């Protein structure tokens, strides 16, 4: 199939503020709401592509924030794409490689370009990304709770809903004993723990104790930018290590696999700079028999839709954190909202991301808006 190029003509940057249904606590902090950038990119044919940034308002997950995203988008990324023509979305990455890091900001544009590209060619996004699966098994990420009772109740509720993987957040003081309590009540559920970089190699004895609980994996136990210590740790524990924060690019993934720093990779589109880089990492992992899954950043509908599209690729073998809109939001900004039935989300069949962005809802949550056009 010959694909038509795209020419972005008009771009609208918005910052949205949405309250989370419940606070979400990780080892680096608690979030009660999200303020994030979304991008609407229109081409000369009137097609519209949408992108969303996963960045948080504080640099606790990675170095980016909503405000740094805004700066990089307004002052560098948006001006550099307006008026250009792209035969393929990959060209965007080559063009902006002069901008160092800021991958979540880049991903906001890059994913919008992919959506636009798919729409301009009248095909679903997941198909242009190379996806095949239409039914996606979904897991759930549960934040740190005040009490074990509350955590166990939440797990029970999620298992009843049919989620295929339970991920719990851990931090020093809320780790081995918490997992022990979970395993007493739920000896066999597919369970994993995410530490968000809360430990160091000094904690090796504690991390070894987790081996007895038959976890699917432990996610990002050590430093956010490390692959060396993780390689040392993986040689001493049986629980497979899954890297999240440490993998920001194809090169990072290659090095981590070569060093044996992980047995699984969590691909977050924003963290690695977009779909093109996600596909490269996916293909590398497939070559090396490393299963991947799609993590989340508590995204609203646009980000969620992009996550669902990428999980259609074949090496996404483990259920991801691509839960339903209702898990996070009182109302989402897309129509229909993302629904999960029996732990399965179905790829929408429409063009591009396949969900319609609800302009009224977007307006309701917008706290900042700026338009850019070709001069
Ligand atoms: O480490 O995966 C993480 C949320 C914010 C920042 C980091 C992480 C998370 C989650 C939630 O685990 C995933 C989701 O359901 O969106
Ligand atoms: Mg994580």
Give an account of the 3D structure.
The radius of gyration is 20 Å and the shape is globular. The mean pLDDT is 97. The strands form four sheets. Strands 5-6-7-8-9-10-11 form a seven-stranded parallel sheet. It has helices spanning 66-81, 90-95, 103-120, 125-128, 148-160, 176-185, 204-209, 228-236, 250-259, 269-272, 275-287, 301-310, 325-328, 359-365; strands spanning 8-26, 29-43, 48-52, 135-137, 140-142, 166-169, 191-194, 218-219, 241-243, 264-267, 292-294, 334-335, 344-346, 356-357, 366-373. With 375 residues, it is of the alpha/beta class. It is 35% helix and 21% strand. α1 (66-81) crosses α3 and α9 (250-259) runs parallel beside α11. The site of 2-succinylbenzoate has 12 residues, from loops. 2-succinylbenzoate binds next to loops.
